[in-house]
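Hi,

I'm pasting everything inline rather than attaching a file, because the server keeps stripping attachments. The sequence lines come first, and each chain or strand is labelled.
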Amino acid sequence: MKLSVLVNEGPYQHQAADTAIQFTKAALEKGHEIMRVFFYHDGVNNGTRFGVPPQDDRNITEQWTELAKQHDLDLVICIAAAQRRGILDENEAKRQGKDGDNIADGFRISGLGQLIEAGIQSDRLVIFGD
Amino acid sequence: MSEPWEDDELEGPVRKFMYVNRRAPYGTIYALESLEVVLIAAAFEQDVSLVFMDDGVYQIKKDQDTEAIGVKNFSPIYRALEGYDVEKLYVEKESLESRGLTTDDLVVPVQIVDKNQLADLMEEQEVILSF
Amino acid sequence: MAMLHTVNKSPFERRTLDTCLRHAVKGAGILLIEDGVYAAFDGTVVAEKIKAALADHKIYVLGPDVKARGMKDHHVIDGVQVVDYGGFVDLVTEYDKVQSWL
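And the predicted assembly:
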């Protein structure tokens, strides 16, 4: 089956990101296709590469990056939510006149249309949030 | 002029999308950002229903005056939904009544459904979005 | 067309479980995840609610979340099925759609 995932909360603050990762991993192990993982609301904070969580615990952003690399996943951060919360790629930083960007590997910034498209084209859309 | 992140016109099936709003406005951002999804989603011409239940009914309460809290009042946007062809707005009867509200308290015309009708409506949907 | 409902909040913190039960039609499945797993155990004030709901619904609880919260040796209500993440995925594909009650 073709599945998509929506992550509505940032890393660590809520379990949503962790559950989403475990679900995504399990789905891939079962041979399902993950069409897209879309990050909205504080979920966009999953996509900053500047997080330095304690060494003895998981690094959620890196888990996403690793999963994306291994399975060619499409991790999409909503541009409107990202702008509000300061998650920028190089283009966005230039456009907005900011002196740096912080997006992590494996993530890309795009519009809410990508979420709707995932809802239209996937067999199932599973939402993780607060 | 289209921006790099704007999607090309999508061809494909028309699905029944339901947006479930259960949270009050301003205390959290979910009400505003879910509305932003609805507006963007309108371009995709899907079969859209909006449901206001539990504290979500407060999102469409009249007379919101946000000046003193220093936050933008986004309730006028609900009145613009009709212009986006988003016309199926449902409010759960029990949620409204338990909060001492009536349809006269709301900024937009809505269809009132009781919990059983709402349950049936939810069953008909293909994609349900919660925020 | 049966729906899978997920509930991720404790029934003692939020009324999400109640709202879900009020809107889940007969035949729908309910999966308790994250803090929502606390509803799955005997001996709480919500146990009767779950037992009653079992008449109309299949109810599942996510094992890894149970273990994480130190509830492994507490008695899961008879009839509530413990699943792992693979089981979660299977439920998502077996039911026709998913509604996450947040």
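Residues 81 and 94 of chain A are 18 Å apart (CA to CA).

If the labels don't parse on your end, tell me and I'll reformat.
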